[in-house]
Amino acid sequence: MLVLRLLNVVAPAYFLCISLVTFVLQIFLFIPSMFRDPSTTPLFSPALLHGALFLFLSANALGNYVLVIQSSPEDLGKGLNLGEGAEVVADWLDGSRSPGSALPSTHFCRLCARVTQRHDHHCFFTGNCIGSKNMRNFIMFCLYTSLACLDSLVAGMAYISAALSMSFANPLAFLTLLPHSISQFFSGALLSSEMFVILMLYLWLGIGLACAGFCCHQMLLILRGQTRYQVRKGMVVRARPWRENLQEVFGKRWLLGLLIPVLNVESDYHRQKEK
User: Known catalytic residues?
Assistant: First the structure.
């Protein structure tokens, strides 16, 4: 438990550091290097278009990140005294001690010390539980983080291509870039800043693929009307049309939520279900 609590602090700090480094590289290195192309017009230059795209993706990623934390799932066990004998009460709430005693679709998270409805999982990068209230913002966070990493990857490859006078037309060029760069760096033929950018390329690729895969996995579960916790526990859920499952998670302003970070508004279906 101590390791998990430590990870709950280190992971958000890691994400914020990566975001800060990415922002600095984009604003002070990648975008200024695009202004050096004399063949482009000032109004529709690649630098301005890329800068606007990067700011749009970053604002959505960080905005939804904040909303995931801000709209954390409501603690259903707030009125219960979990101070003494918390382990026993927690086991009763999620049914791990007495089968059939669990409250429907609830789970007690020992890291957050709260009982959440439709618990999906605990996200260490946000230090928060993901449930029905912040699931939409979490999916948007994964989507825009993946797109921002892809954007930074393309911009970084363009910068390295110009700085080292190399081409990425051959797919093997990217695969062999890291070992060749390490040997050139220790021989003194590669600058420290260029080596740092090359390392960030592979980091952006890994984070982008991980977020994209996680986003697709979550969407598949939503279409099935399931959560990761229910799948892990082998719980059987009532089959419903996939449109109702999407409406329950994404709510009314789903189209607006694709463009700007907004809090989720529960759908009419979800409100009728609670009544």
Answer: 123
